Amino acid sequence: MKIVTAQEMQQIDRTTIESYGLSGSILMERAGLSVARRIKERFDKRPVVVLAGGGNNGGDGFVVARELHNDGWNVKVLLFAKRDQLKGDALFHSKAAEKFGVLIEERTKINVEELTDTVVVDALLGTGLKKEVKAPLNKVIDTLNESGSPVAAVDIPSGISSDTGQIMGAAIKACITVTFGLPKRGHYLYPGCGFAGELFIEDIGFPKTLLESEQLLVELIEPAQLRQLLPKRQRNAHKGNFGHVFLVAGSRGKTGAALMAARAALRAGAGLVTIGIPESISQTFACRVLEEMTLPLPCNSGFFTLDSLGPALKFLQEKASVLAIGPGVSSEPETASFVRALSVKSTVPVVIDADGINAFHKESQALSQIDAPCVITPHSGEMGRITGMSARQTDENRMHVAVEFAKVFNVIVLLKGAPSVLACPDDTMFINRTGNPGMASAGTGDVLTGIIAGLIAQGIPPVQGAKLGVYLHGLSGDIAAARKTEVAMTAGDILECLPEALKQLGIN
């Protein structure tokens, strides 16, 4: 399913009216009826207060009020605009609501008492909001949130940016949000996502060709897209058919990251995994690896150096299907030089994570020198370091940051977080909805790196491998949280639940 900006949705709306002959009044009617239907399904019949603005969002609210009133609900509309300012379709539906007997009052404020024991319909601002909410509406929003009344938001909770999910001064916290045609970015990006409650996406008659247009560049990662990426295994298959992951990882005191990533690659289906490790700590691995193989590389006191490059590159060129580099390698300056050099010289797809990403801090131009397909998997802090931004700035506009970086450096960016965003150099982006706060713990990123590398090793194109990988990683985390709780789950639990996630996705 495509995910749109406010401007993209406005264009779909405009084209539907101008080119397909479906009037704005009809679209508004269908939108309002769909909201009313969801309210009837979700809430007991009780008094309803519709908070309406002066634009089209308010027009949807008038339709909601008319439909509920006509079905016997006790409804009133509080209009936060002058009646004589209403125009077009909103004016038409306000008059229709009044003719049906709906009470419409002009207001500039509300109090908690009049909202007690009511359902509130938020039809104040909608998706067109571009500036911060100021008085008197910010006070109205604060009062509504203070009341604790259940809220059904029309299109998007008032005060949430449709494009970034940011709170524009003040925002209504809804129980349900009913949006039309396609979801908006702000429905999935935090903090807005946390204000939307349960999201319903309603078909109100937009042409399918507009909703599926290739000009809409952002999509939600959905199971139906992923099930066919891994072909069924032939009965006479052998391990060489499923690729060889070369994982360059680990350093003194950070052996666990390498082991977690390696085991995740095998769990994701890779036929072979070799861990390139600093030679001086190879004995630490010898007693812990089982299915994995190791390649001890020249080092300095447990850390990779440029002396590691020759044998690593030889193995990479002769045996590897994919290079995964970074988990636990440390931020030693010479290690960083080694990471950059090996990544640039790789002739197979590259997955870079953790300290591998930090190796490009102040050297981000080196990413452009990687000729092989490259996936980087930063969290907000790592993304901030290589862009010169803070983690907070990254999170406030994570989609824009990810796609701009992907285009400038010709890499695939999987910006981890809530939600994770996958951005490609051709401007396409994907949003992943699996996962939970319990995954914010040590080692979960290493597991993700291994999963993605293991999938790419089997011949899945890097973009598709990253999509499938981040979805499976989050789904495994959701299964783990259900079994162990979000508080107690660990990265090892995610790894343990990966087979069940594959089964749930329909991959055997």
Structure write-up:
With 508 residues, the protein is α/β, with parallel strands linked by helices. It has two domains: 6-220, 3-Layer(aba) Sandwich (Rossmann fold); 243-505, 3-Layer(aba) Sandwich (UDP-N-acetylmuramoyl-L-alanine:D-glutamate ligase). 41% of the residues lie in helices and 16% in strands. The chain is built from 19 helices and 19 strands. It has helices at 6-20, 24-42, 56-70, 88-99, 137-147, 193-196, 208-211, 223-226, 255-267, 282-286, 309-319, 333-345, 355-358, 380-387, 391-396, 398-409, 444-457, 462-484, 491-505; strands at residues 48-52, 75-79, 103-106, 119-123, 151-154, 176-180, 198-202, 218-220, 244-248, 272-278, 293-297, 299-300, 303-304, 322-325, 350-352, 374-376, 412-415, 420-423, 429-432. Strands 8-19-18-17-16-15-14-9-10-11 form a ten-stranded mixed sheet, sandwiched between helices. It has a seven-stranded parallel sheet with strand order 3-2-1-4-5-6-7, covered by helices on one side. Helix 3 (56-70) packs parallel to helix 4 (88-99) and helix 18 (462-484) crosses helix 19. The two termini are 25 Å apart. The mean pLDDT is 96.
Mean model confidence by pLDDT: 96
Stretches where pLDDT is under 50 for at least 5 consecutive residues are none
Report the structural category: alpha/beta
At the fold tier of CATH, the topology name of the largest domain is UDP-N-acetylmuramoyl-L-alanine:D-glutamate ligase
Q: Sheet with the most strands?
A: 10 strands, mixed
Count of structural domains: 2
| Proportion of strand residues | 15-25%
| Order of strands in the sheet with most strands | 8-19-18-17-16-15-14-9-10-11
The tally of strands reads 19
Count of separate DSSP helical elements: 19
